[in-house]
Amino acid sequence: MTLSKSLYTRAIQCPKSLWLKKYKPSVLTPPDASAKAVFETGNAVGELACQLFPEGKEVAFTRDYDEMIAMTKEYIGEGVKNIYEATFNYDGILVMVDILHVDAEGVSLYEVKSSTSVKDIYLHDVSIQYYVLSNLGFTIKNANVVHIDSAYVRGDALALDELFSVVDVSDEVMKMQENIPKLLEGFEKYLADKVNEPNIDIGSHCKNPYECDAKDYCWRVQRNIPAYSVFNIFNLGSKKQVELYEQGIVDIKDIPDSFTMTAKQSQAVRNHKAGVTHIDKEAIKAFVDTLSYPIYHLDFETFQQAIPEWKGISPFMQIPFQYSLHIEHEDGRLEHKDFLAVDGEDPREMLAERLCEDIPRDVTVLAYNMGFEKGVIKKLAFEYEALSSHLLAINENMKDLMTPFQQKHYVTPSMNGSYSIKYVLPALVPKMLDAYTELDGVQNGMEAMSAFASMSKLEEGERERLRASLLAYCKLDTLAMVKVLDKLREVSDD
Ligand code: SF4
């Protein structure tokens, strides 16, 4: 059996996933834009972490692993202290160590991760490296995970020793060694049969630790799990979902009335079974009546940086770079304002200033899922003292357009028990969906985020096209809020 480190961790999550990757890769879903972005971030973080161990040599990646192994050997022979991507093979198990530190007493392994904590799957990742190197006869001094410290706040310069946390996981991975031969034997057995897929059922392991790329195949194709099933009941938890699945219950309509759920979950299930729309006019009217004109419909777009580029930024902090405002006046007039930062510069201060110019202190501000907008504004208020009281006043006056849906005052079967705008908008204003699909370039928040993050690398013309796409997309988001509120007014007036 030949197995790379990534195939090993894939098999740890699910041996069937390993089998499919090896023998039936066509059924796997290719990585989407966000998976590619995560991959690129991982590479950038990996490269930066090498600076913690300077003056090393990198084993260049080639498809010729023997060459990489020979190069690693050569570097060790030359007395190179830090080797990046040091490559080894023991009994068909191929590993590349992100950073290998070599000294007279032995070697230290460093696995670099762009996340903010040590996850169990990383221990498996390091344990297989430990297994290979110890079996090759190396004395391993310690094994470590290097991850990003989310508490770090960048000052004038990037402080690598503060940005990264180095966690010694030697004890944990040593304890795992005993079990590895048994695990490898199991994987080998599965792989020995090239015709029959491993008989492994779906379950919570399909999403944990990673969303499996065979999910569409195993769930939809093989088991006919509908798009909305017991696995989609909001906050039900994987234990209860699996409990239902193991009883042969997949369709929500088949959930027995006796099954214990929260009141809101039970109501969502009853609504789905009945297939009727539930509208609590009075509660909706009470919500609408809390909003006084003019109403400022606000939506932010944000992006994140694993490696903070500007002072005051923490890793993965939501950095606002754009907003759209639709201002609804009592006479029916609709006004639009927006802001889109210049790429490549810290956008926060200018955005905060413009926000204070565009939104008076004492008006109703409406956001969908306002916790997000409020969190962004609170951080801006903390950072820019001169604007702080105005920004906090905006927060004070904010109301959440999500409330009537979250409180289940308006529920349609097509919302699938969710109150996310993704479900609410098509249920209430189906025409808006066409407007989104007609947008050129940027059609959702994730695309907006990666568009802005990559903009400074683009040629002028392409950059202008993308800026126009971002402005059009964000404008549509707040227009959608206006339409949703219109619909709420309409049903509460009926
Ligand atoms: S979807 Fe689930 S069962 Fe299928 S390969 Fe992935 S983890 Fe295994």
Write the CATH fold name of the largest domain: Nucleotidyltransferase, domain 5
> What share of the residues lie within helices?
40-55%
Total DSSP E strands: 14
**Biggest beta sheet summary:** 7 strands, mixed
Low-confidence stretches: none
CATH hierarchy: architecture of the largest domain: 2-Layer Sandwich
Mean pLDDT metric: 94
Structural class: alpha/beta
Q: What small molecules accompany the polymer chains? A: iron/sulfur cluster
Alpha-carbon distance between the termini? 69 Å
Give the C-alpha Rg. 27 Å
CATH C-level class of the largest domain is: Alpha Beta
Protein model, in words:
By secondary structure, the chain is of the alpha/beta class. The protein has three domains: 189 residues, Lambda Exonuclease, Chain A; 71 residues, no CATH class; 218 residues, Nucleotidyltransferase, domain 5 (2-Layer Sandwich), CATH 3.30.420. The protein is 46% helix and 17% strand. The protein has 20 helices and 14 strands. Strands 1, 2, 3, 4, 5, 6 and 7 form a seven-stranded mixed beta sheet that branches. Strands 11-10-9-12-13 form a five-stranded mixed beta sheet, with helices on both faces. α1 crosses α2 and α13 crosses α15. It is globular. The termini are far apart. The model has no long low-confidence stretch (mean pLDDT 94). The site of iron/sulfur cluster has 13 residues, from α2 and α9.
